[in-house]
Amino acid sequence: MSPQTAAPVPGLALSRALAQSADQGRSDLRGGALAAQEPAAVVTVVTTDGRRLEKRLQYSKGHPKNPFSNEDLTAKFMDSVVPLLGSDRAKRIAETLWNIEPAADASSLVKLSVKTA
Length: 117
Hints:
- By secondary structure, this protein is α+β, with helices and mostly antiparallel strands.
- It has helices at about 10-15, 30-35, 70-85, 85-100, 105-115, and strands at about 40-45, 50-55.
């Protein structure tokens, strides 16, 4: 495909306007040696009118100090599984997983998880 016939890529203009960098010297977010071991994420947006908007996240989602909720885990699971097995089966698998403790065995989970032709 030549550049003249290529379809426009959504978000390409925005991605060209973004810059990223790692600032190893930002110990102020958590301080000391811990900051070097677990650097925080800082996103700064400079708007076209010059305003600076900043958001700091000390621990990424899923970190033991910022754990996923059950709803977060289910949503992440559904995002991954629905394209492969469909919404109904993905919901049944999620329900089975959240209630796996009282199950006699895992055979129902295995049956739900195997993609059929």
